[in-house]
From TrEMBL:
Superkingdom in the source lineage: Bacteria
Gene assigned in the entry: cysD_3
Presence of keyword ATP-binding: yes
Entry-linked SUPFAM superfamilies: Adenine nucleotide alpha hydrolases-like
Name of the featured protein: Sulfate adenylyltransferase subunit 2
Source lineage: Bacteria, Pseudomonadati, Pseudomonadota, Alphaproteobacteria, Caulobacterales
Alphabetized UniProt keyword annotations: ATP-binding, Nucleotide-binding, Nucleotidyltransferase, Transferase
Source organism per UniProt: Terricaulis silvestris
Molecular-function GO terms, alphabetical: ATP binding; sulfate adenylyltransferase (ATP) activity
Length: 317
């Protein structure tokens, strides 16, 4: 008898997952909750939605359009460009913003470096430096709420953050001083100079996101689906070979079918081997995954267990 294989089991489960009644009911509940949270943004005067062109922000923007239809959502889009983003993602960002008709504000880490507010080595990742540029943009436009697509299942620091996450006058998050959130009641009260981070997808999982993308036919950058790419195997990760991340002398370059589970800064984001070319196939792979998307693909989150929490305390989203 052939032994049971976990991936085969997932394939069998994934074949009918879109029609599975409990999954559909869960997705309907999550959608209703996210729309309710987005409508609670009427508590704020100048909210902005963080839109990078990634899958979570694409889902968030889709929900925002639904929440306020037939009129446009009452907020602008904001993206912090590290200067090391994937070209396909930036192109998708601009196209999607134009389709919605929402104003898109782009602020650049490169500009922060020129001003001297950010200092990074030439060959270092700019991912963490986004926090400074984000806070500069928040102060420039006096945004009192920044809406993000972060989810609690991504990693430990995000797991303990509230849906309405208070930031002090320095833009800092204080984990031990978070406000209680009971029965869907959110505290949006702010003092002078403070702002709120709002995460309508907090209770979603990566599988929920892909199930919703499949259900709603939400467009995404092509990087999310399997495509051939030159990579290098190092420390258990696949490093993409790009102009910003070239192969070193002696590296063995492989041409592999891969997809990206996250599409952050090129210098710290790795693909995974995959043949999934549709949302349904990605969902099937996601259900079989044993490592979180950030654990499987983000070099900067492997530095130490507290890396994300430290960045969030400093103002990261």
């Amino acid at each position: 008898m052939r032994p049971a294989h976990k991936f085969d089991d997932a394939l069998m489960a994934g074949a009918g997952v879109l029609n599975e009644a409990p999954a559909a009911a869960r997705l309907a509940r999550l959608e209703a909750e996210a729309i309710y949270i987005l409508r609670e943004l009427s508590l704020f005067v100048r909210p902005a939605l963080l839109f990078s062109g990634g899958k979570d922000s694409a889902v968030l923007l889709h929900l925002a359009m639904k929440a306020f239809a037939p009129v446009k959502p009452p907020f602008k889009l904001l993206h912090v460009d590290t200067g090391h983003n994937f070209a396909e993602v930036l192109s998708f960002r601009d196209t999607r913003a134009k389709e919605t008709g929402l104003p898109l504000i782009v602020r650049s880490v490169e500009d922060s470096i020129r001003r001297g507010s950010v200092q990074v080595a030439e060959d270092a990742s700019r991912n963490a430096a986004q926090a400074v540029t984000l806070l500069e943009a928040q102060q420039e436009f006096e945004f009192d709420a920044l809406i993000g697509g972060a989810r609690r299942d991504e990693e430990k620091a995000r797991a303990k953050e509230r849906v309405f996450s208070h930031r002090d006058t320095f833009g800092s998050w204080r984990p031990r001083a978070q406000r209680p959130e009971l029965w869907g009641l959110y505290n949006g009260r702010l003092g002078v100079g403070e702002h709120m981070r709002v995460f309508p997808l907090s209770n979603w999982t990566e599988a929920d996101v892909w199930r919703y993308i499949a259900q709603e036919a939400i467009a995404l950058p092509s990087l999310y689906y399997a495509h051939p790419r030159n990579v290098i195997r190092r420390d258990g990760l696949l490093f993409p070979v790009t102009e910003l991340t070239p192969a070193a002398e002696g590296d063995a370059i492989e041409h592999v079918s891969v997809r990206f589970r996250t599409v952050g800064d090129v210098t710290c984001t790795c693909p995974v081997e995959s043949e999934a070319r549709t949302p349904e196939e990605v969902l099937t792979e996601t259900l079989a995954a044993t490592v979180s998307e950030r654990g499987a693909t983000r070099m900067d989150d492997r530095a130490n267990a507290a890396a994300m929490e430290r960045r969030k305390i400093e103002g990261y989203f």
